[in-house]
Amino acid sequence: MEPLLSLKGKTALIFGVANDRSIAWGIAQELHRAGCTVGFSYAGEALGKRVAPLAQSINSTFVEPCDVADDAQIERLFGQWKEKFGSLDILIHAVAFADRNDLKDFFYTTNRQGFHLAMDISVYSLVAMARCAVPLMEGRNGSILTLSYYGAEKVVKRYNIMGVAKSALEASMRYLASDLGPMGIRVNAISAGPIKTLAASGIGEFRSMLKHHEKSSPLRRNVSQEEVGKSALYLCSDLASAVTGEVVHVDCGYNIMSTPPPNEPEGE
Ligand code: NAD
Question: Considering the domain boundaries, does residue 210 fall inside one?
């Protein structure tokens, strides 16, 4: 009998690798280590050059572009996947985008276009992908996983429209979990602590956010891509066979604290 954590014979399609610091890359490596066959979709040609060698390093043979703002491209991508693999077990949605100008100062200055852009790419894309994944996951106990952040629950300064988008993403995840549960498909989210990635570099004063999390988290440190990857592996494996509709915090415990620890000197 295979161990519960083995993903041998399973396939995973991963959206959101931009480079080797991407959270999605941390997830890809863990899924690969568990024996899963992993394929990638990336945003555009410039990123393709970065993603291709990463994919090759874990023997991936599926590396295709797709702008998730375009339904036709999403449908084409899933069509290509179907042609190559016939079915899908795991879908990783690690995609988000907002105008840099909307990730500083205030939320109330967000214009309609910026609001729509963030919601479209960071939230609706999950619904569009899930719709395409369903027929490929039929009878396979599929698992869909998305990435969120604490700014969905509480106001995090400068996270602004992305916090609103993450709230909508978490709600969408729950509605999808309810719709797809009867088909045996589980849908979950990881709420990750801050990690220095390309997307994070667009958030105003991200470095002070990292310091604050490090100082305030019960574990007194920040989380790594690898740790998010390991939790993703759990959620996508049979170990989590009864877990769906959940937001799992992988943030060194930051979310349980009401205020930073009192009277602690910097760096402790
Ligand atoms: P990242 O920049 O490595 O990944 C973001 C990905 O989104 C990139 O690969 C980018 O190409 C992709 N993307 C953006 N617009 C796209 C489009 N139109 N079509 C296709 N792909 C598009 O950064 P990351 O931090 O690894 O982000 C992954 C996920 O994790 C995001 O949802 C992010 O909000 C979430 N997250 C990040 C942190 C953090 O601190 N880094 C914390 C919690 C959650």
Answer: yes
Q: How far apart are CA 244 and CA 159, in angstroms?
A: 27
Catalytic residues: 149, 159
Range of the domain at 185: 11-253
Q: Per-residue confidence at 117, pLDDT binned at 50, 70, 90?
A: very high
Ligand 1, pocket-test mutation among 97, 120, 251, most atoms within 8 A of CB: 97
Question: Residue 28 domain-assigned?
Answer: yes
Number of domains in the chain: 1
Catalogue the long-range contacts made by 64-73 (C-beta closer than 8 Å, 24 or more residues apart): 64/39, 64/40, 65/41, 66/15, 66/41, 66/42, 67/43, 68/15, 68/43, 68/95, 68/121, 68/125, 68/128, 68/129, 69/120, 69/121, 69/125, 71/128
- Residue 266: inside a domain, yes or no? no
Q: What is the pLDDT of residues 195-208, one digit of tens each?
A: 999 999 988 889 99
Question: CB of 254 closer than 6 A to ligand 1?
Answer: no
Examine the pLDDT at 260 and tell me if it is beyond 90: no
